[in-house]
Design a protein that fits this description.
The complex is a heterodimer of chains A (about 325) and B (about 270). Chain A is built from 17 helices and no strands. With about 325 residues, chain A is an all-alpha fold. Chain A folds into 2 domains: about 55 residues, no CATH class; about 250 residues, MetI-like (MetI-like fold), CATH 1.10.3720.10. Chain B has 13 helices and no strands. With about 270 residues, chain B is mainly α. The chains are: A mainly alpha (about 325), B mainly alpha (about 270). At the A-B interface, helix 1, helix 2, helix 5, helix 6 and helix 7 of A face helix 1, helix 3, helix 4, helix 5 and helix 8 of B.
Chain lengths: ~325, ~270
């Protein structure tokens, strides 16, 4: 490769103990290494970010070549559309599952951290859902959630839940917060278990033994053992030791998982909606990501869809900044 | 801390109960895939008559099923190769070379990891339309072959390799390229393998991009094919499950082989550099 010849003629500026000022020539060598990645980065990430922002101020569609500037109209249309706010609420609704999922991951990690035999076997089994996650698993869950023949409701039947009380899962607009499906309002008749909860249950099943548990497991093995032993000698109970010794030590990991979950959660829900629910019933499982897809690739309104995607980015950004501000950032850096 | 026997048994009991909950859907999937159609809606979990012909019937109902398989593996293999290659080179530049603007560019890379995929997806689609790459392998592979996350991960990994090693070869007169190939790449192998497994698994299951790129039946990847199978043969649950089982075999095999790397890689991703 030509890189060899051009880079080989003189000593290179490797990062090292003997620091000297970087020279312009070093930049050329570095650029040769960067080039394949940087080209892709510019064409498929950085460039599109700019184009997307421009699109959001136009009435561009996938159907016509010509387009016009419309200023902030896409953004004002979006803010005036009650559906946008309903979809935002739908997206946020799924965060109800987050504390359960995180507590579950931590609980499993605590169990697997104990000195018992067979830890690797259990870790493998528990990790299975998260690495097989995808369309196949969603189609499987669609069957499991079938109100009449599905494994879940029949499991409830075995446990003695009468058939009249079986949740209708993906067919129902009911939800744990009693949200009205078509308005931003509460409606007592909507209280119960429905499609959103079904997707949340699937999400917990998929994620609980996955990456977050492994992160907690790694963090637990970094907690100095003497700390726990000292607390035990002082007569602290298992729970008190966990609460006052282990939990604070896990704070950086908890903070990291929380931020990543928020970033992922706001962008989430697309695959499930497309594969399992079509966004329904009555839009209840339409998240912002699915809304953007429908606008762009089914209704071809690129300008409007881009505006919604920037609103989504703004939300993700704001939430991350707030987290960063109120979370203990030394935790994360140290 | 030493566990008392009853504590051990309690932990095992909880772990076994949770594992059963984790595995039950998989067992249901496998058993259903062997049921004859008449038994699908019966509650007996284990088939009374085993019907392995379901697996052959999948490709009768969906003649392109084998093609979906090949498409998925072909696309994921190329994306994996290109991603590892481009990430390793860029990771080396960020971790091992000194040049003006390095830290600023790296921050830019990190910042873009926070931008939702849907923001860049529409312009990327427009690019593919303009290049007339819709419904082509190149259109599925090329945009997925550059990863800011991969670059970040490889950089983190390369930072853990002792500096004395490449300094020694520079003193011996080695070029940057030689240091990269002969010193850093062999030592970075665990990191590269981890990234390769991640990338392959991620791309094999990728849904959004193929969904908007693929137009013809022959170009479908497995996730797109499975979804189409579900909407077109909605009633044939047993065949659906056979197709799902077949689609999960490659990632499961890969996982069993590469589990060690995966676990390490996830834990490495969270370490700030």
């Amino acid at each position: 490769m030509s890189v060899t010849a051009s880079a080989g003629s003189r000593p290179v500026a490797l990062e090292g103990r003997r620091r000297r000022r970087p020279r312009l020539g070093d930049l050329w060598i570095a650029l040769l290494f960067l080039l394949p990645n940087l080209a892709g980065f510019l064409v498929f990430t950085a460039g599109p970010v700019v184009v997307s922002l421009i699109n959001s101020f136009t009435d561009r569609t996938l159907l016509r070549q010509d387009w016009q500037w419309v200023g902030f109209r896409n953004y004002t249309d979006m803010a005036a559309d009650p559906l946008f706010w309903i979809f935002l609420v739908n997206t946020v609704y799924f965060f109800i599952g987050l504390p359960i999922a995180m507590a579950g991951s931590l609980f499993l990690a605590t169990l697997l951290h104990q000195k018992i035999k067979g830890v690797i076997l259990f870790r493998t089994l528990l990790y299975l859902p998260s690495f097989t996650a995808g369309v196949a698993i969603m189609l499987l869950w669609k069957q499991l959630l079938n109100p009449e023949f599905g494994l879940i409701n029949n499991g409830l039947g075995v446990l003695g839940v009468p058939k009249a009380d079986w949740p209708q899962w993906l067919n129902s607009t009911k939800n744990l917060l009693a949200l009205h499906p078509e308005r931003l309002a509460f409606d007592a008749a909507q209280w119960g278990i429905g499609a959103r909860d079904a997707l949340m249950l699937m999400g917990i099943w998929t994620g609980i033994g996955g990456g977050n548990m492994l992160l907690y497991l790694a963090a637990l093995s970094n907690v100095p053992e003497e700390l726990g032993e000292a607390a035990a000698l002082d007569g602290a109970s298992g729970w008190a030791t966990f609460r006052h010794v282990t939990w604070p030590q896990l704070a950086p990991t908890t903070f990291f998982i929380l931020i990543m979950s928020f970033i992922g959660g706001f962008q989430g829900g697309f695959d499930q909606a497309r594969v399992m629910t079509g966004g329904g019933p009555v839009n209840t499982t339409t998240t912002l990501a699915y809304h953007i897809y429908v606008k762009a690739f089914e209704q071809f309104q690129i300008g409007y869809a881009s505006a919604v995607s920037w609103a989504l980015f703004a939300i993700v950004f704001a939430v991350t900044v707030i987290n960063w501000k109120f979370g203990n950032k030394e935790d994360l850096v140290s | 801390m030493k566990l008392r026997p009853w504590q051990k048994w309690l932990i095992y009991t909880i772990l076994i109960i949770i594992s059963i909950g984790t595995l039950l859907p998989f067992f249901w999937m496998v058993f259903t895939s062997f049921k004859p159609e008449s038994e699908v809606k019966l509650l007996n979990p284990i088939p009374q008559n085993w019907n392995p012909q379901n697996y052959a019937a999948v490709s009768v109902e969906a003649p392109f099923f084998g093609r979906y398989y090949l498409n998925s593996v072909f696309v994921a293999a190329w994306v994996t190769f290109l991603t590892v290659f481009t990430s390793a080179m860029a990771g080396f530049a960020f971790a091992r070379l000194r040049w003006p603007g390095r830290d600023a560019l790296f921050t830019l890379y990190l910042a873009t990891m926070m931008i939702p995929g849907v923001v860049t997806m529409i312009p990327n689609f427009q690019i593919m339309v303009n290049l007339r790459l819709l419904d082509s392998y190149a259109g599925l592979i090329v945009p997925a072959a550059f990863s800011a996350f991969g670059t970040f991960m490889i950089r983190q990994f390369m930072l853990t390799i002792p500096r004395a090693l490449d300094e020694a070869s520079v003193i011996d007169g080695a070029s940057a390229w030689k240091v990269f190939i002969d010193v850093i790449m062999p030592l970075a192998r665990p990191g590269l393998i981890t990234l390769a497994i991640f990338t392959f698994l991620g791309n094999y299951g990728s849904f959004f991009w193929p969904l908007v790129m693929v137009k013809s039946e022959a170009m479908r990847t497995l996730p797109i094919g499975l979804m189409a199978f579900d909407s077109e043969y909605n009633k044939a649950t047993h065949l659906m499950m056979a197709a799902a089982v077949m689609s999960l075999l490659p990632p499961m095999l890969l996982f069993l082989v590469g589990q060690k790397y995966l676990v390490k890689g996830i834990q490495l991703g969270a370490v700030k550099g």
